[in-house]
Amino acid sequence: MNVHLLKSPELSEDTYRDVVLMLRQYPGPIRFIESELGIMDAEPKDQYWEDEKKFDSKENVEFIQACLSSDEALPYSFPMTDKRLTWQDLFRQCENYRRERCVSPDDHVILLTDIGNDKNWFGSMDDSLKNYFIHTENWGHYFQNQVDVRFPIAYEVIVWLLRGCIYSSRHEMQEHLHQTSIGCFMDYCENKKEIILKMRTADLCPKCLDHINLKDLQSNFVNQILDTMDGIRNNLIFRERVRIMRKPSRIQVEGFMKHIFLTDFGNLCVRLNPKERALYLLFLNHPEGISIPELYDHHQELLTIYQRLSGRESQENIRRAIASLVNPLESDISINLSRIKRKFKEAVGEELLPFYDITGEHGERKFIKLDRELVTYKD
Ligand SMILES: [Zn+2]
Question: Which residues are in the CB-under-5-Å shell of ion ligand 1?
Answer without folding.
Answer: 184, 186, 205, 208
